[in-house]
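Below is just one:
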Amino acid sequence: MSSNRLTLNAAKTEFIWLGTRMQQMAKVTVSLLHVKDQLITPLDKVRDLGVIIDGELSIDQHVRNVVRGCFYQLRQLRSVWRSLTIDARRTIMAAAFVATRVDHCNAVLYGASIQVTRRLQMVLNAIARLVVGAGKFDHVTPVLRDVLHWLPVPSTNTVQGSTHGRHF
């Protein structure tokens, strides 16, 4: 590495042991990785390209973080929401939430469980309700399909080779 003028930054270097079951992970005895006089400790979960994965290649923590962040931002936007037109609302939601948060690396959701995709669908439904001013218990599937032209999360989850499932 030094011949290419690259150095290891141990503070920013992460590694994780991957396995199929925690029983298999328990068989791993190496607790530290030695690389060029640096000690690196394995982590339970790591972030790669903005996606959080754990040792079983589960994306549950990633989805929890996305959902939590989206709902936080939605609560922050409610204070200025009434002063925006529906077109401005739609643009903000498409750019700020759907494209950058919900759709970010959505290819890793391929084959994800219903519980995982249901959480992301809740976020899309909340965004759609906020854009059109619908109530908490109003049906939003027609809004998603006809007004916003967004695909439901399970549809984007099954489109192979697609990383951009929604249409703005």
User: Anything to note?
Assistant: The helical segments are 22-26, 60-77, 86-102, 114-132, 141-147, 153-158.
